[in-house]
Design a protein that fits this description.
The structure is a homodimer. By secondary structure, chain A is of the alpha/beta class. Helix content of chain A is about 50%, strand content about 10%. The interface between A and B is large, with 66 and 66 residues.
């Protein structure tokens, strides 16, 4: 499997062609998998959480793959996949597989490869996948677009103390977890959970939660408090969504969005410099920007040019 | 101008070609315009707000065009553009132009036409444009994508009383206005504004606001309280964003996004049924969905098919 993943992550054209043949021939997994997204700012305790929750899940019989999405490899220092945590029990558990962040230049490439690696590990029998992101740029949205349930891990505190959560995250978070609810921070964590629950109640109810709003729970990954409750909540939410058809609908929408993104990537590749199309494309973009052509005109002229090689 | 707008809104192919010629030949407006987006759930007082704020702006010398975006014409009953409000002073003010909702089948078409109408009214000398939406489906995001400042109008109340605001709106709102801050509701409105300010402070600061977070203000459109403050805040924010280069950057990004959307529309048109391409496209989409092809393979096969007519 590691070999197949290396192939999928390779940018060499020959490897790419082979990787796609491998991917198209993969068996569909027998049991439906559970794909979890996880985001949290550096220092919030993501690695401790993945370690503790991962061990619980593996102990319960899950086969767990942990992947990371991090567009800038320079920023991966705080991730679960750093050298330090390789010494922890989870990476050595027989049911667990942990894959370091692939280095990639742009987020689109990371997205494609991560989606493909998810298919690989599921075909290899892993029934639970955690895709972790440090939340640089658009990576949370990207991870939410390839997972069933998105977990947002936060530190206790709020307002001016805590400025790490992007606004759009409220749209995609399915479960808000306030970590480090231990010792002196336990009371602050409760208050933070209440603040987020309050903020979420200001917004429109959604069909993808049994109560119409995501839950906000507290836990201590270090001391183990609340882990059982978080795991139970996760499985309850997954069961409810499967039953309600939310899972199936979400995955179908995700594949369509992936296909749309790939059409964009394929077009970009086609229109990039080495096909001699590059300059022409810039011409249309410039014409659309300057107002010389309207964007609808520029788009049609571009497509027309594409059809007459 | 009304004639040009009718032309732009027409779905007849001949009209479309002529409309695009007209649009490409429009003079660029001399003074930079201010484009305001406005959203709020039915009953929140959008028409009263537009009427009161519009009259203030026109009295101050602005030339104001009010457009509406409403993908479902059946839902436009509560809009500023209903028959009732045609009797109000604003539509009869010499500096004001109010355009009823164009009927259109899909949001993409509404978006294109509204962008084009914005260009038309600006070329005709209107320096302030309000684009109003009742917030059905994705219309808020669409309006935010064609305006400089997005206003969210809310009623006093919160939590279970107020479930109208979509989560993603926090991402796009530039100014949150709690309307109906009069009589018995004045205190509730203050509390609602504080609740939203608190919710916004839980999130990451952004570069597009002088303070890093959007302001939440209260007003009474009916009694006139707070209107001067809202107008001053609007102009202060616009001035700051112009100075900081936010306006220019936003508009450039918006034109590029429009161009991308138009490329998608042009491709869809090309691949739709009457060109004989429809079935083939479905084949690739189905292959991508079933796992028979990976989405990257399906996308490339589709583009390949497109290039060989």
């Amino acid at each position: 499997m590691a070999k197949a993943i290396t192939l999928v992550e390779s940018t060499h054209p020959d490897h790419r062609a082979l990787a796609e043949t491998v991917l198209a021939d993969l068996p569909r997994p027998g049991t439906p998998s559970l794909r979890l997204g996880l985001s949290g700012t550096p220092g919030v305790g993501k690695s401790t959480f993945v370690e503790a929750m991962g061990l619980r899940m593996c102990a319960g019989g899950a086969r767990l793959a942990v992947l990371a999405v991090d567009p800038s490899s320079a920023r991966s220092g705080g991730s679960i996949l750093g050298d330090k945590t390789r010494m922890e029990p989870l990476p050595r558990h027989p049911n667990a597989y942990i894959r370091p962040t692939p280095s990639a230049r742009h987020l689109g490439g990371v997205a494609r490869r991560t989606r493909e690696v998810i298919r690989l590990v599921e075909a290899a029998g892993f029934d639970t996948v955690i895709v972790e992101t440090v939340g640089v740029g658009q990576s949370e949205t990207m991870v939410a677009e390839m997972t069933d349930i998105f977990l947002l891990l936060l530190a206790p505190g709020g307002g001016d103390e805590l400025q790490g959560v992007k606004r759009g995250i409220m749209e995609i978070a399915d479960l808000i977890l306030i970590n480090k609810a231990d010792g002196a921070l336990a009371a602050v964590a409760q208050r933070t959970a209440a603040d987020y629950a309050g903020a979420l109640r200001l917004m429109r109810r959604r069909q993808t939660d049994p109560d119409g709003v995501p839950k906000a729970l507290t836990l201590s990954s270090a001391e183990g408090h609340g882990l059982a409750e978080v795991e139970a909540e996760l499985h309850a939410l997954a069961a409810w969504r499967r039953e309600a058809g939310v899972f199936a609908a979400t995955r179908q929408r995700q594949v369509l969005a992936w296909l749309d993104a790939e059409i964009g990537i394929a077009l970009d590749a086609l229109m990039s410099a080495d096909t001699g199309f590059g300059t022409t494309r810039e011409t249309f973009v410039d014409a659309g920007m300057s107002g010389e052509m309207t964007p609808p005109q520029a788009a049609r002229a571009l497509i027309q040019r594409l059809r007459t090689p």
